[in-house]
Amino acid sequence: MEWRIVGKVDPGHAYDISGLNVVFALSSIGLFVTTVWMIWHDYSREWKGYQREFIRLERQTAERQLEEAQASLDPAELQRLEEQLAAADTALAQNQQGIDEREARREQLRDERYLADVEERELKSVYDSKKFYYEEGEHAPPGKGVSGEELEELERQFFPARDRRIALDYEIAQLDRELREIRAERTTIEAERRSLTERIDLIRRRLSTIQPSFPNFFRNLPLVDFIDPSIEIRQVLVQNVTEDLNFIQVPRVDRCMTCHLGIDNPDYSDAPQPFRTHPALELYLSSESPHPIDNFGCTGCHGGRGRATTFNRVTHTPRNDAQRAEWEETYDWVEDHHWDQPMYPADFSQSGCLKCHSDTVNVPRADDFNRGRAFYEKAGCWGCHNTRGFEERRKVGPDLAHVVSKTTPEWAARWVKNPKSFKPSTFMPRFWNLENNLDAEVGARNDTEVAAIVAYVFGKSESIEYGPVPNGDAARGRGLVESVGCLGCHITDEAEAAQVPLQRRHGPSLAGLGSKVSREFLFNWVKNPKHYWPDTFMPNLRLTDQEAADVTSYLMALRNPEFESQLVPQADRAALDEIALEFLRTRLPDQLAQERLASMPAEEKLTYSGENLIRRYGCFGCHEISGFENAQKIGVDLSDWGSKMVTRLDFGYIDIDHTRRAWLGQKLNEPRSFDRGKVKLPAEKLRMPYFGFSEEQVDDVARNILAQVRDEFPLEAVKRLDAAEAVAERGRRIIHEFNCKGCHIIDGEGGAIYETIEDPGMRPPNLNTQGLKTKADWLFHFLKEPSTVRFWLNVRMPTFQFADDQANTLVRAFMAMENADPFQTDDQPVDPELLSQGQALTARLRCEQCHIPSAAGTMSASQLAPSFRLSPDRLRPEWIARWLADPQAIAPGTQMPQFWPVDNDGKVITPVPEYLGGDPMRQMEAIAAYLVRYGR
Question: What is the phi/psi pair of residue 431, to 5°?
Fold first, then answer.
């Protein structure tokens, strides 16, 4: 058979080669485009843009600093140094031949020294070996023994070789010294010139590394930026801290500084974000601070996703709606619901302090957090909610065991129904007529519940028998209230509440008090508060019967007629049956519950319902109530609420952001709103009361709740109190509980009563350096039984009836704050001449003109000072010397003059050079030694 080829030759392929070439071409182009896009996408990362912008900012900053440095340079001084340098170079040129000869000789000697050193080392190795075997003697292995002659021969070779090396070292050192002396003048001038231009040179070198250049451009290009890029991820591995990622504990890595590039550089304190310097570098981030960034990172305090490098993924949280709108427009910001611990808003950043400072009363320099924690405590949130750090506190509300001897059931019913109608500043919340139990919707049930609770409390209350109350003068009583110290803890006008420090709201407002309490109760209360309530923090001002009667007359005149005119909530029979049956059904079958209800007298129904309503609403969380001594708190545990996942929060039908902060804000502003749109039985309804917080107060409470997290920092990161600090903190707890800062400045804070006293000389003393100032024994007895120190003051140091352990804790705390020895005495013998000079100096400086034992003449309070008669028992000599050196440093504003000022050179000047050779330190020491032995 014969084959013929007609037309195109068929190669026998199962596919079209031409079509396949097209596919390959298109896919190659697609792969190329994709690769280019991938490289470009990686190159144009958000954080890289920030770093390029920061390099421009850094360049501008360096150029500005260079201009400032050049402007501050003294041209005349620089020219002088240049001329001296030129003169020194000329002198060196003239002596160049001698320098060259010495340098050539030095190089020759160095070569010889090298050979001598080699020879010495070789001989020494042989000598040391032979010496060892010679010392071993008969214990040496066969054939290894060394004779004395052989060792002597080695010594004759080794020691001369060592001497040659030493001689060469000495000659080289001599030549080096001569060369340094020849060049000394030029070296000194060069060092002075370098010191003058050092800052300029440093800035120029820094500029050279960030100026636009091909090397700087090339090393940041795609595919080569792995070599030595200047634009790169910056991060810190936080030591010994892990985080949970999908149930795996991984090391915590923070990359925040990838964008926050100027965070630890003080040069960028005014730069725009994200380049601005972190506030208070002496406290945060710097290596010298207590919180170095390498140990703490960023997310440990601020929260957020530390490994992320984009604005949205790090979970920034806006502080308000305006910032939220700005971020949505600028960054396309959206809430990230997939990260359990989003970043705190900027104004909540101090919430992170609690992780490491849980055992301190006040966190230093965390004013927002301290204010929030104090407000949380005053509001009594922890009465219903377990909260870490509040486990052993006394209940915030008054004991109701004897309330029948304090007020009337009618007042109590009006008060319980709506506390703020009587006292707008009260922390007592409102439980009724809220969104889920409005009077218009529940009828008489609210009044019935109020009446039932009041009936139970008063029924369980035990009365106290009071004697007759003397007549008093209200005008004198007002003067006493405004002068003896009551205003350190109380206000008398509700209009003041929003303006006064929280210390002045330590006790309840006295406004309208006459409408609340009986005259007999009030008289006995101001005479001795612990007679009514043993655990009260209210101190005893040691008022006489007449003073107490005057105060009683004034306070009883403070009435609230509008509140008195309100209708008293009464129990409705049908509503009472409904409430009582509701509680009976929780324990009994319906038929038995109905039968039990029918057999109960009206009074029993009332008290039975009141007892169960108190249990439902948790009144015992703030008050001691008979029958509820062991009752458990009714609220959710808040000890780790800040770590609660957002998905576990019930947002109900409320249209708010799904964030912890938004949920808390809604809960604190409208606590029952989450029942909106739901059908619930009374027992199922939300019970949290309405506190009437302002927006700032809502933030304060939320800040403290969000601080309660599960995060565990390693022991080396957590603030560990040493023995002295622990003692000081125990004392600060007592100071806080008894509101000592209401009258005194302690740790630089407090003195709230100062705003009510115009004359600075009439204010309670500043207790700065108290632990170094007073002797432990005197301070202990003073705290137990206060005595008169400043006789001219109207404000009285009250009797707090401290137990011995409380007084001892306070004494030790004051001493620990100043690192003072509580057992130090001044019984050591003193040179009689020093005492004599101290007495003469005291007279010469006329110290007793102000330090007088009693009232005298027309001197103002600011000019008066404690009598020297108290000094031996009261003061420490080292404090007296420190006080004399600089009174203003201890008590700013004091009228005590500084007799020994410091001049501009830091030298202490004496006003009496004729004493003790004009030595200021010896003069102050002499006065201190005399005063602690005054009158002895």
Answer: -100, -20
Domains 403-621 and 723-817 in one fold: yes
Contacts of 777 (CB under 8 A, 6+ apart): 873
Q: Greatest CA span in the chain, whole angstroms?
A: 151
- Residue 661 burial class via C-beta count within 10 angstroms: exposed 0-12, middle 13-18, buried 19 and up: buried
Question: What secondary structure, in 3-state letters, does 612-664 show?
Answer: HHHHHHCHHHCCCCCCCCCCCCCCCCCCCHHHCCHHHCCCCCCCCCCCHHHHH
Residue 259 to residue 53: CA distance in whole angstroms? 10
Residue 201, amino acid? D
* C-alpha radius of gyration, the chain, whole number: 42
DSSP letters of 467-486? -------HHHHHHHHHHSSG
Enter the tokens of residue 718. Answer: 């957590």
Contact criterion met (CB below 8 Å) for 806 and 931: no
For residues 309 and 46, what is the distance between their CA atoms, to the nearest angstrom? Answer: 8
> Distance between CA 483 and CA 757 in Å, rounded?
8
305 Cβ contact list (under 8 Å, min separation 6): 299, 313, 314, 315, 336, 339
The beta strands (E) that lie in 64-131 are given as none
Determine contact, residues 704/373, Cβ cutoff 8 Å: yes
What CATH class has 403-621?
mainly alpha
3-state secondary structure 326-372: HHHHHHCCCCCCCCCCCCCCHHHHHHHHHHCCCCCCCCCCCHHHHHH
Distance CA 80, CA 192 (A): 11
Output the pLDDT for position 425: 93
pLDDT band for position 244 (cuts 50, 70, 90): confident
Distance CA 567, CA 387 (A): 38
Query: pLDDT for 118-135, tens place per residue?
Result: 988 988 888 888 777 777
> What ranges do the domains of the chain cover?
70-218, 236-343, 367-386+637-706, 403-621, 723-817, 832-931
CB 358 within 8 A of CB 388: yes
How far, in Å, CA of 931 to CA of 925, rounded? 10
**Cα separation values, 811 from 79, 726, 826, Å:** 64, 13, 18
Query: How far apart are alpha carbons 61 and 203 in whole angstroms?
Result: 10
Q: What pTM was computed for the model?
A: 0.82
Which CATH number, 3.90.79.10, 1.10.760.10, 1.25.40.10, 2.40.50.180, labels domain 723-817? 1.10.760.10
CA distance 34 to 479: 86
Q: What per-residue confidence (pLDDT) applies to 1? A: 46
Tens digits of per-residue pLDDT, 702-731?
Answer: 999 999 988 666 666 666 778 888 999 999
- Cα–Cα distance between 456 and 198 in angstroms, integer? 83
Nearest to 682 by CA among 621, 617, 635, 602: 617
Structure tokens at 88: 């020194």
CB atoms within 10 A of CB 835: 15
Two tokens at 887?
């009174």
| CA–CA separation, 352 and 292 (whole Å) | 15
